[in-house]
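Hey, can you fold this one?
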Amino acid sequence: MAITAILMITTLFVPVGKIDFEQELYIMDHLPLMLLCMTIIATQAYNLSLYKSRRKQLKLNYYSLFLLLIMLGVFHFYVHEDPLNFEISSALAKIQLGSTLPIIGVISQILAIKGIKDDENLIKSMNRFR
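Sure. Predicted structure:
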């Protein structure tokens, strides 16, 4: 969860894609992207304080995962001239460092969800032995 928050803070300041050959896409230049990123950061910051309530943590992690996937879709929409016509070669040519950070965030969210579920199962099994 902390990794996702750090990645999203970093994403605010690095280019996420190339619109043209000279123009790069920054999150701070577009209000929808900035609001999505700030929402993910706030959700993860609040989620870190909920270490005793695992059910709320799971719900917030699923919500953040959904927002990260929406953010990747919005990146695709802003960067490509024709977002419905997807070509791998043009997508790879327009990738920047900032567009890979949400993908790493998605992976870290999936691992956090798995860790929370494993922790909850461990605590449930310890309660059965008493």
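Residues 2-129 form one domain. Let me know if you want another pass with a different chain boundary.
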